[in-house]
Recover the amino acids of this structure.
């Protein structure tokens, strides 16, 4: 896995350079250090294959965090790839071994689960973060998996997948897209940042999924938002409460309080009362973008 090169330019404006402590990754005007990583034949093949499969973004809008970017030498431990700077990450690897100049297993975004199963790609669920449902692929299968991703639908990683040209919340998906694409204008946008949509509660192919998971940018508090088109029933309130209970048992949600929100076009007085009793906030949504808190 040796490489005599100290630096290398790839397509999509990506440049990498060996330096003390890691690999300097540069794309456009941004850069960061991937600690312990080195330019090697394995690293070059990884980057080339990822770019060739449409994952030509190694620096996203929010990752690495600004305080981890160059010239801060602290950097991060991973190399990560995505389709665009605004999409969620597609692939991340933090297992580089400097002695072997090669990496180990790779972690693919859990939103690819259905496509992985359909393509017959072998994987295991990430053990250290089971609830997220991310997919671990063994080293010997990483390149083949990346090549298979060239045929995947990467829109599953987008917060803004489809523009709705009609009128009204015809589906829950439309309601979700309206909220995500106009997040700063929502009742929660001045306090919370979106962590993920369709966040898996349990892990696995049949995991329950939270419509929108957000986190307070100042305090670290969590917000669960459950969406219902048309009228929400009592079950919807219980669903939010169950999500809050499930996340409350997880170590990765031990910091910060957990709050729940139910959003629907219509919420009856009976459902409002139950929501208030269970500590769940309730909002009625009207097209195209209006929210009124009712509980």
């Amino acid at each position: 896995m040796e490489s005599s090169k100290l630096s290398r330019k790839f397509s999509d404006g990506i440049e990498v350079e060996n330096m003390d402590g890691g690999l300097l990754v540069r794309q456009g005007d941004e850069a960061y250090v991937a600690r312990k990583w080195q330019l090697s034949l394995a690293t070059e093949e990884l980057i080339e294959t990822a770019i060739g499969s449409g994952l030509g973004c190694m620096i996203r809008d929010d990752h690495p965090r600004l305080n981890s970017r160059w010239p801060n030498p602290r950097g991060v431990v991973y190399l990560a790839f995505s389709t665009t700077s605004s999409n969620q990450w597609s692939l991340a690897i933090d297992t580089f071994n400097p002695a072997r100049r090669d990496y180990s297993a790779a972690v693919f975004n859990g939103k690819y689960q259905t496509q992985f199963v359909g393509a017959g790609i072998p994987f295991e669920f990430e053990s250290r973060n089971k609830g997220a449902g991310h997919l671990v692929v063994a080293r010997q299968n990483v390149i083949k998996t990346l090549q298979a991703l060239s045929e995947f639908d990467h829109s599953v990683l987008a917060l803004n997948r489809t523009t709705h040209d009609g009128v009204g919340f015809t589906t829950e998906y439309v309601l979700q897209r309206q909220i995500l694409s106009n997040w700063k204008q929502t009742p929660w946008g001045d306090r919370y940042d979106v962590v993920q949509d369709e966040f898996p509660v349990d892990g696995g192919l049949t995991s329950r999924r939270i419509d929108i998971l957000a986190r307070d940018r100042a305090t670290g508090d969590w917000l669960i938002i459950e969406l219902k088109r048309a009228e929400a029933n009592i079950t919807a309130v219980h669903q939010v409460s169950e999500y809050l209970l499930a996340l409350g048992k997880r170590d990765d949600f031990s910091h910060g309080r957990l709050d729940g929100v139910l959003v629907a076009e219509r919420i009856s007085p009976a459902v409002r009362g139950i929501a208030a009793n269970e500590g769940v906030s309730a909002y009625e949504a009207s097209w195209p973008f209006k929210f009124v808190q009712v509980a």
User: Anything to note?
Assistant: The mean pLDDT is 89. The first helix runs from residue 41 to 52. The longest strand covers residues 222-232. The chain is about 20% helix and 30% strand.
